[in-house]
Design goal:
The protein has helices spanning 17-24, 76-82, 126-132, 172-178, and strands spanning 3-8, 12-14, 32-35, 42-51, 56-64, 71-73, 88-89, 98-103, 108-118, 121-124, 139-144, 151-160, 167-170, 184-189. It is an alpha/beta fold. The strands form two sheets. A six-stranded mixed barrel has the order 1-13-10-12-11-14.
């Protein structure tokens, strides 16, 4: 029975270098608050307000380092709160997705696309993938046993790279549905 660490990926924003400058001022850089489980990724001290047609969500975390495209990852609950029609997509697949306004202390930007609900996924190194018997882009299920709310998630995309560390990522809605709090592991089902 192969088990993988399950982590909750709360709402967050990835910014381009250009957008960092606009939102936080000329010469601004992202300030690392803490390292994340994926090597080289970190949560930042800086925060932004995400504005949709209906409402805003303040103090949304930024994850570094800077990216090639600005992207906002939210849950379905967040999408309803903001009033945006965000599609379920893999990170980086933002073409034709929802837009929003981002407000920082030094300025604001409008993005025409980039707001998504991240598809459930598992990060694996090539060695991990071999051990689990999976391949890049394969779709699997993961069973999470919790106190009173055990749940099997389907439609989980496997992402394989030597830059990754083994971990499954679900959003806050999904974590709440499965009572997946603290350090929890799920059984990968092929």
């Amino acid at each position: 029975m192969a088990k993988v660490l399950v982590e909750t990926s709360a709402r967050h924003v990835h910014l381009t270098e250009e957008h960092i400058q606009i939102l936080f001022g000329e010469g601004a850089t992202l300030t690392k608050k803490k390292d994340l489980s994926q090597p080289g990724q970190f949560a930042c001290e800086e925060r932004v307000t995400v504005v949709g047609p209906k409402k805003s969500i303040e103090r949304v975390s930024i994850l570094g380092p800077a990216r090639a495209a600005t992207q906002v990852e939210i849950s379905f609950t967040d999408a309803r709160t903001l009033g945006v029609d965000a599609p379920v997509r893999e990170s980086g697949d933002v073409a034709g997705s929802a837009g929003c306004k981002l407000i920082g202390p030094a300025g604001e930007i409008e993005i025409a696309e980039g707001v998504i609900i991240a598809k459930r996924h598992i990060h694996f190194t090539p060695e991990d993938a071999k051990e689990f018997g999976v391949e890049d882009k394969q779709i699997v299920s993961v069973k999470i046993d919790s106190d009173g709310r055990s749940l099997t998630f389907g439609d989980i995309v496997v992402r394989v790279s030597p830059k990754f560390k083994a971990a499954m990522h679900i959003d806050t809605d999904e974590a709440n549905a499965a009572c997946a709090f603290g350090q929890i592991y799920g059984e990968v089902i092929l």
